[in-house]
Amino acid sequence: MIFHSVSVEAFVLPAFFVFSKILKKVEFLTCKTGLFPFYI
After folding, report:
1. Nearest Cα to 40, choosing from 28, 27, 22?
2. What is the pTM assigned to this prediction?
């Protein structure tokens, strides 16, 4: 159980970091082009 949670955490944290970077890039592009994102 402990090893499972550690492996999941080791996978989720980098994935969340990459996702946040992509989200920031999308926000920058939408602001640059003057388009509104689909989320609030």
Report:
1. 27
2. 0.49
